[in-house]
Each structure stands twice: as C-alpha cells, then as structure tokens.
Structures
1.
Amino acid sequence: MEAKQKLSPVLAPKRGSETSQAENNAPSLVPIYVPESKIEKHLAKRVNMLDVLVTIIVGPEEKSYAIHKGLLCMYSQYIKAALSNDCIESKALAFRLDEETPKTFDHFVNWLYSQRVVPKGESLEEMTWMSLVQLYVLADRRTCTALKNDVMDSLVTKVVKGNETINCDSIVYIWKNTPSLSKLRLFAVDCQAYCGQLVEFANGVGNREELPLDYVFDLLAKYYQLTEKKCNLMKDFEKLGFSKAYHEVVKDSDC
C-alpha cells in the first residue's frame, strides 16, 4: 500500500479574497450527462458543504486552488483524514499535493463541483486515455471512490461506444502507479482481451521492453480463457463493463 504523502503547510488565503477565489476556481455547477437522481443527490448534499475554503498547492508548478472543505471531506477520505489531524496543516486549512499535476487536478475540481468527468463543452472522444487513467490514479491516491467509479464508466464507454482500446503508454502508467489488485489493472487486461485484437496491439507497441510482463501474462491468460469459451467478446465486455464489474463499493462516508 502506498505510504501517506507528507503534507507541507502553506499560507491560507485571506478571508477577504475567499469568495472571489472560489468562484474563479469552481467550474460550472450545472451537471450534464449525469443521471437526474445523482444530480439531485449531489446538489442536496452541497447545500451545507460550501463553508470554509481549503488552499491546496498542486505539483511543482505550485498552482493554488481554493476549494470548499465540505466537498473535499465528503468525497476524499484521504483529505478528510489530513484535515482532521491535529497538526499545523489541518489548522491552517492549507497543504500541498506535490505528486499531482495541475492538469489532472483541474479535472478533479471539475468533477468535485459538477459530478462530471468530461468538462462542459468537451466530449469523451476528446479526452485521451492517459488523461482518464491519470484522473483515476489521482482518485485512488486520494481515496475518492465515487470518482474512481465515474472514471471507470467513462473508460468502459470509450471502449464500447467509441470502439477504442487502451494504449501502451496508459498501460505502463497504470502498472507503475496502482497496486496489484487494482480494478484499473483488471479493466486494462479485459479491455484488450475482449477486443480480441492482440496482433494489432502487439504491432502498435513501440518499445516492447517497457510493457509490464505481468500485464502480458495476464492478457494472454485471459484471452485464452475467452477463446476457449467461444464468447461473443465485445457484447460480453459491454455487459461486464456496464454491470459495474470494475466498480468499488462506495461507503456512505465516501459520498
């Protein structure tokens, strides 16, 4: 299990600038492409969450975000635990996330306020495999189960509706940044195996030495298993993906 990241204190924003800074950082609050029941549930919870602001400094670029503490604590158990500690960081309501990048954290903030993985004005086709995978990994590091499940739904849709398969760079990133039992690893194996285009995939790999051996062995084993059963591969993958087989259980305290 990945060790908890040490939080470094930074100066909290001045009270007079909190409102304007929050407005500048918060995306549109009108979700789209989300089931109506989920929107209502999210908005009902948000009423009492827009309280004090937390300053988060992200990445080596040190981009600053002012985000409502209630939302952060509701969706990220990692941040909730960090802010609950009796330490300088929690009292200052400010800390750093040096491992993350502003680009990926922008997507996290967008989802936090809108419950939408794909930003308003963009389409799922415009989001790269890597951007979705990096968002999932961020959610995994920050114990944000609801976001992980939403990203997974987008990944499944990208395969089923967009007729795409995961690329080599994303696979390498997944194996470097996730634990062995990660649902994202399971998806990466199944995605390629069910698509049944192993020859095309092998020919498209640039540097084969970078491809994780565990992934190769798991992929071949899965593909052999599927061909033995003579499955209707893509239809079976669609049923599997949309049955939430790659989801994790969201506790009440998680969302």
2.
Amino acid sequence: MATNTTTSNDPSMCIHYLVIFPLMYLSLSPAGAFHKFLASNKTWHKNTASNHPDLFPSLAKGQAPPLLWLGCSDSRCPETTLCGAQPGDIFVHRNIANVVSPHDMSCQSVIYFAINALKVSHVVVCGHTSCGGVAAALGNGKIGGTLDAWLYPLRELRAGLAKTEEGWDGLGDKEKALKLVEANDKRGVGVVRRNPEVVKAVEERGV
C-alpha cells in the first residue's frame, strides 16, 4: 500500500491525506491520470486553504451538513460541483442509477445517520438524463455481475410504465429513459418519506 501522507499537525490536512492501493489504479486507469489527480489534489488543497482559511480547521472539528443527497454514481454528476458547494455542505449516498431501496442497508444506514446524527434539514433524491443504468434497464438483456440483480427494481418499474403510460410503445429510447428517470426519482422520494426515521424527523422538526 502506498500513501501520500503528511506529518503536519495542521488541521487543514484532514482532507489532504490519501491512501492509495497501487494494484487497483494500475489495473483500472492509466498511471498518468492517477498522478495528474494527485498533483491536482495538492493544488486544490493549497488554493482552498488560501481562499477559505477557516474551512479546513472547521471541518477538522466535525461536520454539520444541512442536506442529504441521494444520487447516481455517474462521474458526470458530482453533487458538490453541481450545487456550487464546499466540502462539509452535503452528506452523500450514490449508487448505480440512483436506486433508493428500503432493502439497501447501505442507503438506509446513510439516511439513519444523516437524520439522527447529523440532523440534516433536507433530503434530495436526484436522478439525471443519459444515465447508463437507466438505459440498461430499458431492456432485458443480461448485463453481468451483480448489475442484473441491482437493476431489477428499475426493470420492474419500466415494465409497470409500459402498462400504464399511454403511448409508451411509440416512444423513443430517450423519451422512455426520461420517464423512467422521473418514475425512479418519485419512487425514491416515496421510499424516503416512508422511512420511520424521516417520518419522525418531519413530525418533530419539519425535515
């Protein structure tokens, strides 16, 4: 295991520490890209510490984000960038195709922690256009690995839309994908609203 570390006691280093597993990055991406990101991280840290001198010391003391973001893992949809936010502003859970399921322990654990420990005031369920997971869910072909099981709820939702949406068969793939994204977000919002911790938080403090 290789590490990019610092021995400084400066609390501003809390986000600068990186732990890297060489076998993973060598097999999954060009080494040039990896080193570029390391250099960019150092530049980002330097600029951020200069432009926002109180940010890192504040984050070193803990987090108090007002918002929980449930979104897609797609690299084109980074919530902090899209919202013009800073580190510490948004608590995040992301997965393939933004599937919010009451049976997903990872997602439900994030919701529990966000509501009960962080006391967030808002929960956002965010899908996006041109989603690869949604595109795959429009068909029934085998994808491979765990993705077939993961996307099953989306395929089930698509099958329901095919029965209830007037003119579904006449829509193009882009139109179908958009409707599936919207339906998936609505279902996700429903799952969040029925979460016992969220229900309690809405009643007690108006989340």
3.
Amino acid sequence: MSLIVQHRLAKVDILDIFYREAGNPSLPTIILLHGHASSSHTFRDLIPLIADQFHVVAPDYPGFGNSSRPTPNEYKYTFVNIADTIDKFTEIIGLKKFARITGIFSQSGNAYDEGLSPAFAGIRKFWADPSPANREPLKHIFSPEGLTGAYTLGVEPASRVAPEGANLDIYYMSREGALQIQLDNLLKDYETNVKSYPQWQAYLRQHKPKLVAIWGKSDPFFIPPGAEAFKRDLPDADVSIIEGGHFLNDSNPQAIAAGIKKLLRAMSEISRSE
C-alpha cells in the first residue's frame, strides 16, 4: 500500500464501519481515533504526513461520519460499546491483537479531572439531572456555531483552519437522530469516562507506556492541566502545550505529525533494549 489514502468499509456485526488507510502494512500500525461529533475526516491532512513511517488506520465510529448510523434502539451508543466495536473492527481488517500497548499519543485525550474545562459545569448538571432545562443549553455545543467554534477558538489567525471540517460536522449533525446520539446518549455517557479516570491512571502507572501529548493552549474543552497531569503517573511523559485550540489536527498537522514520529522513535528505543 502506498502513501495514497484508501477509503474502505468493513462489516462489523450489523454495522458498516468506514475507515481511511494508508502506508505499508509491514510498518508499525497506528490507529487514529477521532473525537466527539467529528470523524476520520479530521485526519485528512495528518495521514499523508505519517504514512511514510506508519501503517495508518482511521475509522469512523458507529453513528459518526460515513459509518452506519443505527438508531439507539438498534445499537447501544456508549463509549464502552463503541470501544468494543472498534476492537472487533481491528480484528476484522487483520490487525493483530495487541499483547501490550507500548505507546500512546494524546491530542487532547483527557484522563484527569483537572483537564476538564469550565464548560463541563453545565455538562455535570446534565449528568446529575438530564432534565429539559439542563439539556437545552448543551444543544449549543452541536449547533453550527458551536461546532465551528470547536475548530477556531484559540487559533490565531483563524484563517489557518479550513472550513470544510466544521462544515462536514455541521452536515453530519443535521441528519435525523444525530442530536439524540451525540447529546442524549454519548455526552451523557461521558460521565462513565470521567468515573473511569482513576482506572486509566492506574493502567499508566502499572504498564508505563511511552506517552507523547500535544494539547492546544486554548482548547475550550480539555485544558492544559490535564496534559501536565500525565507526568504524575508517567514522569517521563513528553508533554507539549502549543498555541491552538481543540482540533490541532486541522490547525497544526505538522506539529502533530512530528509528535507521533517522536513517539515512534521512543518506542523503537524500547524494542532495541528488550
């Protein structure tokens, strides 16, 4: 397989999972996992920058992007179930089972309470009481203005961000049932992720994977203290806070590519020492 990105579908149970793939399968495989209300399209500029050193796979989650979008009655939209689906997906496309995760790259992938921005105050109210009064303000997150702001807030100049990423997310959110999936199912279920933070931290302390984190200084959702907190459990974590917002893949793809390649070098050093 060349550096040209291929666009494929894999059948996983009742689902068609869309994914992007590039690079030689003999190289180390990296799975790029997108964020809430987004899709693998967010990696469109990043994939060609790393496919010379990685076999790159970037799926769309169920209910996101170009993957199947069953109703909540047909598919359980929780983060645990999505993780199970993606685990099956990796097996179906022929990736080997991971005996050990030796490296993690975090681009605003939060695992600490201190990484939650003030924006989570309203979300916590919704977790405690999912009433219409607490739900209504959160609809803004998934509005055209909210989705666009997730890309542009903290980016100077904002012209660095191409409009098609936000526009595509806006289109996906305009589809029937999308708001229920994203807000009533997944945003509400994110509470289970927060409750799982201590388990994730224990995993880091026990297994000590190499970790490289690059976060945006002005991320409106996951703030820099969450990135710095990785050092509490992994003192050797490589953490960088750069000018930017939430979607650094769009505004700073070169910096993200450099960080991922730095992780590969660190993992290669581990392999040589074993």
4.
Amino acid sequence: MIQARSAILLGKYTGYGHPMSNRALSSSSTGPSPKYFLSDVKKRIGRCVSFGLPVTGALEAARISRHIGEDWKSLVLAVDGYDIRNGLEEKVRWGEMDAMGHVNNVAYLRFAEMSRIHWFRTLSKNVPRQHKGEWGQLLGPQGTFGLILAEVSIKYKMPLRFPCIFSLHHRLASPPALDETEDDGKLAKAFRFDCTMLSHSIQRPAATFRETLFLYDYRAQSTTALPQWIRKFFQEQWLQQEEQAAVATGRRAEIETDVRGLEMGSWDREGAVEDFGQTL
C-alpha cells in the first residue's frame, strides 16, 4: 500500500497549459499545508483571478473550484484514511450550547459515541454472512461477547456554535494484529479507532478523538482476545483505508499541480500586474 501511495505521489501531472518544471517545484508557493489545504488553494485561486486570467484559465479555475467544492471531505479526511462514505451527519442544537456560547465539551463524547455506533452498523454490510449475527450482538449485552469502551481522548480544535452542521468520521488507528498475541506476548484484546468531527461551514476539523475498545466476555466477566474473523475483517478494512488514502492523496497532487499552472499563467508570469478594476 505504501508503494501504491508513493507511485501516485510521484506520478507526473500537468497543470493549465504548463508542464511541471523545476521552477514550479522550487517556487515560493510550495503547496498548501495539509491542515489548511482547502483554504490555501482557494486563496491561491483568488489571487490568480485578481491578477487576471485568459478565458481558458478562468474556465480552469472554475473547474478546480467546483472539484474541491464537491470533493472537499475526501481532500480533508480521506487522505488520512477516514471513512467519509459512512460518516454521521448532525446539526448543533440550541440546547447543546453552554454559558460560553458554544457546544459544551462533554457533548463531544456523546457525538463520538453516536458516530462509533453508526459506523459499526454500516460496516455490518461488509461482514461475512456467517458472522453477521455475532457482529450485531457486539453492540449490546444480548450475546456472549460485546464491545466496551476502555479509554477515549479528545483534542478540541475549534468551538461549534448554533446553527452548525457537522459530521463525524472514523478510521482504524493502526493495522490490527493477525495473531492472537501482540509483540510483547500479551493477548491481542484491544483495538483503537480515530474519529474526527468536521465542521461543514469552516471545512476543518473541530475535534479529534482516539478510542480504545476491548472485546468483553459477559459469561467470564473479563476481557478476551479478538476472534480470528474479527482480526481478519479489520485487516481488510485497514487495506481499504490505505487504498482510499492513496487515491485522495493523488487528487490533492493533481489539484496542487493544476493550481500551480494557473499561477504560472497569472501572477507568476513575466510582466504580471494585479487587476484592481477601473474607476469611472
């Protein structure tokens, strides 16, 4: 999977009428930072427009803008392996704000829990038929085994306020062990998920979560090792994450190259002068 991602990153892309060159790669515009990719790209396109673009360049700028508008979740989260197709979308309710005028910190835990349950239920469609019943019982005490949350940590990135639409997306934090024991010889009982809460208005993460879960044996009243079929299922999910991340990374690289092409045909061309409009 690493080789596949590297192949996409090293692929040759061409922008608006300009082949990739050393000048483009060594430009002061070295590309958007991962955290602010969307906002940086929008600013760069806006600067090209302010300096003036030919008709073909204007059409290309519109195409790029439409692309990032339609695929922004993938460009923000899928590059890191998050499942954007099975996310949970919610709205901030007035009563969820506190005296400080933003969503109370405690509410974030409830949102992450709702997303985790939603994600597990949507993943059930990929579970082998012979294990679907067992998978469905993992979310409650109806069966012999169940999933329990052992630990959760939160990093608050920005406040959410009413009215606001946001979504939560999960991923596996690391590839699951295929053997019953970890490297230190202990039973492979725990597995970890990452969750990101994404603000739709700002198009940036509002919070990130790390969740540690265990498989619990209700008869023995203790944690237990993950069955082989669960470890194999999570391994398949991990490989899908890597593939989706490679595709999204390639899309980012294409956009970066296309925007660089716009710049070379606008403010970064010889004799470029910013267009401040005309006065009457």
